[in-house]
Design brief:
- By secondary structure, the chain is of the alpha/beta class.
- The protein is built from 12 helices and 8 strands.
- It has a single domain, classed as Alpha-Beta Barrel (TIM Barrel).
- An 8-stranded parallel beta barrel has the order 1-2-3-4-5-6-7-8, surrounded by 4 helices.
- Helix 1 runs parallel beside helix 12 and helix 7 runs parallel beside helix 9.
- It is globular, with a radius of gyration of 17 Å.
- The structure holds 1,3-dihydroxyacetonephosphate.
- The site of 1,3-dihydroxyacetonephosphate has 14 residues, from strand 8.
């Protein structure tokens, strides 16, 4: 059985003071819950050092929301995998829908970011998801599998063994509309079939596939009860310790 992963993407919320308080509340609550899940927080870059300090000695892990594809040099404003790793981070988000659709990052850049994460010993949580128009045109499977293929194809099996996938339908992010467990489960099954084709049966059985998009404490148990859904990537509901802790199963 794959261990469930509950991740909180804070997006552009919580400065380093607010973030330290939230992370401490989550670390304390998580320890008290004796849950066997893996919990990962994704605060903004400037909040990360305070969060690392707040979760020190706890089982909670943290990562960055983005990474640049080079490790150092003249890239004004960018942050490298080496810098993220130096903070003690274990994970990094790559290809979040807001990076793809608001900032305009494309597959070629994301493939390089994925490789930069792996090169620097970070576990990438690689996000994919279709737009509403894709779903309405019955293209969702095609779009999502193309996103996985374009960035993951060509990785060594050992490299792919450190990748976490996250399915986040764009129409469900921040809209209050959660995909049904059935829709999410079907998509996860399709993604797993592609992983089997690219990396073999063992990789397909191992790869964690998270669901994200308007997850709330009320919708989490049903989603997590599905064998294809290995965890949740939570946005809005991860900004309060109570709602985030309520999502984490015991
Ligand atoms: P919401 O949970 O706010 O819809 O955000 C989901 C998300 O984008 C997590 O990465």
């Amino acid at each position: 059985m794959r261990r469930k992963i509950i991740a909180g993407n804070w997006k552009m919320n919580k400065d380093h003071r607010e973030g330290a308080i939230l992370a401490k509340e989550i670390a304390d609550g998580f320890a008290a819950s004796r849950s066997s899940c893996e919990v990962v927080l994704f605060p903004p870059f400037t909040t990360l050092p305070a969060v690392m300090e707040a979760i020190r000695g706890s089982a909670v892990r943290a990562g960055a929301q983005d990474i640049y594809c080079e490790d150092e040099g003249a890239f004004t404003g960018e942050i490298s995998g080496r810098m993220i790793r130096a903070l003690g981070c274990t994970h990094v988000l790559v290809g979040h829908s807001e990076r793809r659709h608001v900032i305009g990052e494309g597959g070629e850049l994301l493939a390089r970011k994925l490789r930069a994460s792996l090169r620097n010993g970070l576990k990438p949580v690689f996000c994919v998801g279709e737009l509403l128009e894709d779903r309405e045109a019955a293209r969702a499977f095609e779009v999502v599998t193309a996103q996985v293929r374009e960035c993951c194809e060509g990785l060594e099996a050992e490299e792919f063994s450190r990748v976490v996938l996250a399915y986040e339908p764009v129409w469900a992010i921040g809209t209050g509309k959660t995909a049904t467990t059935r829709d999410a489960s079907d998509m996860h099954g399709i993604i797993r079939m592609l992983v089997k084709e690219l990396f073999g049966t063992a990789a397909a059985e191992r790869v964690p596939i998270l669901y994200g998009g308007s997850v709330k404490p009320e919708s989490a148990p049903d989603l997590l009860g599905d064998a294809e859904i290995d965890g949740l990537l939570v946005g809005g509901a991860s900004l309060k310790s109570k709602s985030f802790l309520d999502i984490i199963p015991r």
